[in-house]
Design a protein that fits this description.
There is one protein chain. By secondary structure, the chain is mainly alpha-helical. The protein is built from 18 helices and 2 strands. It has a single domain, classed as Amino acid/polyamine transporter I (Up-down Bundle). The protein has a two-stranded antiparallel ribbon. The longest helix has 34 residues. The two termini are 42 Å apart. It binds phenylalanine (PHE).
Length: 452
């Protein structure tokens, strides 16, 4: 075991900012709108919110508890809390998930950098949705530029992770998050006041349950896990840096609340504009990259807005990518006793190698498919719907059935006592409701609807 001193978050606000920084990212702004679009809108949103409350928050609390109780990384924590058992395999799955997620996430993060660049050059001016769509297509199907931006983004991530917890991660998040929220609200106001916006709002908020399939339910669960950063140990790792006087229930509720608010606002930003600007088939990963520039054009000061907005999306992505890389780095640093610097470099370089394949799968490698999906699509699909979903399942099973009620409640009570009744309810969800729900959704989706 490593005997290096451990870094800590400075206090309550620091933790919330860092955890919310991990949660709020491309998952909210980029992934949520197009996944919601593809899965029918209102009904999807309703189930999504239900999963955040009923499953997301309990899993998040479990991760914080596991991390803080063990004071260890995503894999080491299971070894410490359940020595001599195979539970550490959950941690191993989390490390693999970090590779899978960061590989395609860094592709999209790179795109946000290109869009800052285009915004500065006035590249959206006077363009129709069709033109913006075809611009997006020709940029992403190239090789040199998207790969370059991806590498630059990975370098930024690595530099912050090398900087360590308080100096790097915390500082970056606590300033940018509030600013992002304000700008998103401003864009929402523009979007809903466009003529023809109501149809989009209706799509987002009117539930049509007849459109719902098992697969859509799994996608909602996967999206909730992805957006909350649960199921792979990112929050176990951050949990290990949380001080004992921080209340874990309140922190989980605040983080999940902020994350869900941001996701819904992103929907309010995109769908009304989509119906107003009359663009039917801008679905998929290009959705926000086409819709947002179109909205900016109809805003006063849109030029500046576009620049600041894409900068903030990149920052939101950055505060998420550092939490993913941190999972790998904390693991390597503690289990192999190497320096933070070395661990960061090894992690980042190997992830980037896989990441480049994801980026090229929009162009050069677009015909290279596995199960009918490009490498990007496969990583994207696997991360949320397989790794994080099963990760969340095993984590609640671990907390409910192995860590045990007494340990769990004891840890939860440090930094803020919860009532015995509430404790009983939480335990009941973690032990029975969450595992059964996740398990049956996964089985239903894979065996009834088929894998893809
Ligand atoms: N939650 C992040 C987002 O929504 C992505 C993420 C997933 C980060 C898993 C860490 C772990 O963008």
């Amino acid at each position: 075991m490593a005997i290096q001193p451990r870094d800590n978050f400075s206090g309550k606000f620091g933790v919330i900012a860092a955890a919310a920084g991990s949660a709020v990212g491309l998952g909210n702004i980029w992934r949520f709108p197009y996944i919601t679009g593809e899965n029918g809108g209102g009904a999807f949103l309703l189930i999504y919110v239900f999963f955040v409350i009923a499953i997301g928050v309990p899993v998040m609390m479990s991760e914080f508890v596991i991390g803080r109780r063990s004071g260890s990384n995503a894999l080491g924590s299971f070894r410490k809390l359940a020595p001599g058992t195979p539970w550490w395999l959950i941690g191993l799955m989390g490390i693999v998930a970090a590779f899978v997620i960061l590989s395609f996430y860094s592709t999209v993060s790179g795109w946000t950098l290109e869009y800052i660049f285009q915004a500065i050059n006035g590249g959206f001016a006077g363009k129709s949705m069709e033109q913006l769509n075809s611009d997006f297509g020709s940029f992403t199907s190239g090789s040199f530029r998207p790969v370059l931006w991806q590498i630059i983004f990975m370098i930024m991530t690595t530099v912050i992770v090398i900087g360590g917890i308080q100096k790097g991660i915390e500082k970056a998040t606590r300033i940018m998050m509030p600013v992002l929220l304000i700008l998103i609200i401003a864009v929402c106001v523009r979007s809903v006041t466009l003529p023809g916006a109501t149809e989009g709002l209706r799509f987002l908020f009117e539930p049509h349950f007849e459109k719902l399939t098992f697969k859509a339910v799994l996608m909602a669960l996967g999206q909730a896990a992805f957006s909350l950063s649960i199921g792979m140990g990112a929050l176990i790792t951050y949990g290990s840096y949380i001080r004992k006087d921080t209340p874990l229930l309140a922190t989980s509720l605040q983080v999940a609340g902020a994350d869900t608010l941001l996701a819904i606002l992103s929907g309010v930003m995109i769908f009304p504009a989509l119906s107003a600007l009359g663009m039917g088939n801008t679905g998929g990963p290009g959705l926000v990259f086409v819709t947002l520039p179109a909205i900016f054009q109809s805003m006063p000061g849109g030029y500046i807005f576009a620049i600041v907005f894409f900068i903030l999306i990149s920052v939101a992505a950055l505060t998420s990518t550092i939490s993913v890389l941190e999972v790998v780095v904390a693991y390597m640093k503690e289990e192999f006793n190497i320096s933070r610097f070395k661990a960061s470099l090894i992690g980042a370089v190997s992830i980037t190698a896989l990441g480049v394949v994801c980026t090229l799968s929009f162009g050069l490698l677009k015909d290279f498919t596995i199960f009918g999906m490009t490498v990007f699509d496969l990583m994207n699909y696997l991360s949320a719907n397989v790794f994080l979903t099963f990760g969340a399942l095993f984590i609640v099973i671990f907390t409910g059935w192995k860590l045990g009620k007494l340990n769990f409640i004891d840890e939860l009570n440090q930094g803020g006592k919860i009532s015995p009744l509430l404790a009983r309810i939480i335990i009941f969800i973690i032990k029975y409701v969450a595992p059964l729900a996740i398990g049956s959704i996964a089985i239903g989706a894979f065996f009834i609807d088929g894998l893809t």
